[in-house]
Amino acid sequence: MNPPKVYIAGHGGMVGSAIVRSLRQQGQTNLVTRTHAELDLTNQVAVRAFFGREKPDHVYLAAAKVGGIHANNTYPAEFIYQNLIIAANCIDAAFSNGVKKFLFLGSSCIYPKLAKQPMREDALLTGLLEPTNEPYAIAKIAGIKLCESYNRQYGESHGIDYRSVMPTNLYGPGDNYHPENSHVIPALIQQFHEAKVNNVSNVTVWGSGSPMREFLYVDDMAAACMYIMNLDKATYDQHTQPMCSHINVGSGTDITIKALTTVIAKVIGYQGTIEFDATKPDGVPRKLMDSNRLKALGWKPAIALQDGLHITYQEYVSAIARAGLSDR
Ligand SMILES: NC(=O)c1ccc[n+]([C@@H]2O[C@H](COP(=O)([O-])OP(=O)(O)OC[C@H]3O[C@@H](n4cnc5c(N)ncnc54)[C@H](OP(=O)(O)O)[C@@H]3O)[C@@H](O)[C@H]2O)c1
Question: pTM value?
């Protein structure tokens, strides 16, 4: 039997590139990728033509318009439109061209703002969303519901099996270090690296340091994606419901921002003092996914936070060196 042809949408992004690394490590060579410039996934005609030509067997959808609070607040129309249309185009074109297995990547922001912690899969649609990222979250919820609806209508007749995963906060090589858009780990890495190289004796971190957050190294996320994609249908069905079919992917443990800051400073080798500016906003006190569904399915993460941060920092330093060389 020929190996399946696998399309990874968004292969240039942090998660997509980790999925490609993981698939290659597993010996999968029949991979299809397109850059954003080669294939704009918001273009329905182009997406249909691409699926019709390439006829992949499996699809990982890791392409999305992503951004932080500032971007979500400033461009809500782009966030809802592009993410809705990317999901709808890809899922429908996949179905129309015989794709049997599809993995949709969502996000923990699909859960209500006041969801009970840790957040279980069945907290979906039980309350109001965080207003800042509501447009993005609605598009991600629609992606889950597209997968479920295609399964419910066509699962048996066409043998399709479309699944969804909801990652916690991810970090690792390929992360976004843009000053306005970066998440907490890349922002802290950048801040402490600059303080170290410029011999700054004190770093002030925004917020009280008390909020608790969960993090997962991106290669663990990629491994989880492959694990979930490859689970046999009976096992997947046994642990999910047709209208609550998504699976949380987290490390299962959270850490205060203060403790995270200490680990990052140590990894970087910053020896100055650290202060917290409690006048700056903290966000919600705690955000942790309940990943027991995934645990019960037999998967757990392999990379400890400190080890993942070491690799991430090495990659950050190499990227700076490469950028420095290309500036000359
Ligand atoms: N990073 C996290 O902490 C995190 C946490 C939870 C969930 N996720 C989910 O994981 C997925 C991937 O996130 P990521 O962090 O890897 O994001 P990323 O690094 O920004 O990658 C997204 C990729 O999608 C591509 N893309 C965007 N719009 C496109 C379009 N219209 N047509 C074709 N390609 C397009 C981007 O290409 P360009 O850059 O060229 O536009 C980029 O390669 C997203 O669904 C996100 O919601 C991420």
Answer: 0.96
